[in-house]
Amino acid sequence: MTFGLPWLPLESVMLAGVRIAAFLLIAPPFAHRGIPGAVKAMLAMALALLVAPRARAASDPADISLFVTQLLLQVVVGAALGFLVALVFNAATAAGALIDLFAGFQLASAYDPMNLTSGAQFQRLYQLTALVLLFASDGYQIVITGLVRTFDVLPLGTPLNLAAMAALSASGLTQMFLAALQVAGPLAVVLFLADVGLGLLTRVAPALNAFALGFPLKILLTLLLASAAFLAVPQLVSSLTRDSMRLLMGVAR
Questions:
Q1: Is 1 helix (H, G, I), strand (E, B) or coil?
Q2: How far is CA 15 from the centre of its chain?
Q3: Would you say 51 and 144 are in contact if contact means Cβ atoms under 8 Å apart?
Q4: Which of 81, 88, 90, 86 is closest to 18 using CA atoms?
Q5: What is the predicted pLDDT for the residue at 112?
Q6: What span, in angstroms and rounded, lies between the C-alpha atoms of 96 and 181?
Q7: Which residues pair with 110 in a beta bridge?
Q8: CB-side exposure of 12: number of CA atoms within 13 Å?
Q9: Average pLDDT, integer, range 184-188
Q10: Would you call the peptide bond into 29 cis, given omega within 30 degrees of 0 as the criterion?
């Protein structure tokens, strides 16, 4: 007795699962090391089963080399899509890093084993707040929806448009810096003016050690004004979620 496997549906599930798994390993909020790898694998397989009917892979079952090539292609596509989403959501981390830079908190930076990065207090605060808001506001569902729709604009077996990828990466990088400046820019300007004022005070009264007073003064200003910048994080996350959706839909242009 022989059994025949439905090769085309199985191939669609496998290829879609590889793309989704590569995406989940890089894109926030799923890339956080606090999410177990088993959960990511199960989520990738569940989503692959759901998108398999619309993925529609087609190849010769006897051509193993072609199938392996398609697997590698889906790894590249999933990683590229995840990179675009991660690039957009790094705006929250960049805003926190900008505040730490002007406030002098970079001196107290520490290694974060959950994100495999080194960062100071506000950088890690903004990063964790963005992750929490993505789960609390169901923003992660929009990210998953964008990933699923990529199987319509970039079907299985279709190579990645490198020109569109480069243009989207440049656009995402620009938006990241712009969003970070919009959130942390006003506070950074205030702290820069505080440094200028301390420098002028040193010129007027050289005997006064103004820079020794600068650290507690800048910490006080940061703690007093950081709440205003922190209130912009929910709106920032909402805007970044929409931007990530737009970038995912532009990969096939």
A1: coil
A2: 23
A3: no
A4: 81
A5: 63
A6: 10
A7: 119
A8: 17
A9: 82
A10: yes
Q: How open is the CA angle 183-189-193, to the nearest 5 degrees?
A: 160
Asked whether the whole model's pTM tops 0.85, one would answer no
117 forms beta bridges with 112
Q: Residue 170 corresponds to which amino acid? A: A
Tokens of 247: 């970038």
With vertex at residue 30, the alpha carbon angle to CA 67 and CA 96, rounded to the nearest 5 degrees, is 135
Contacts of residue 55, Cβ cutoff 8 Å, sequence gap at least 6: 12, 15, 16, 151, 155, 156
In whole angstroms, what is the distance from residue 85 CA to residue 217 CA?
37
pLDDT digits (tens, 9 = 90+) for 109-136: 666 666 666 667 788 888 888 888 888 8
Rounded to an integer, what distance in angstroms lies between the CA atom of residue 161 and that of residue 166? 9
Query: Furthest-apart CA pair in the chain: how many Å?
Result: 97
Tokens of 23: 């995406």
What Rg value do the Cα atoms of the chain yield, rounded?
23
**Confidence band for 21, pLDDT divided at 50, 70 and 90:** very high
What is the band of 23 on the pLDDT scale with cuts at 50, 70, 90? very high
Name residue 10's beta-bridge partners. Answer: none
Q: Which of 31, 41, 129, 49 has its CA nearest to residue 85?
A: 31
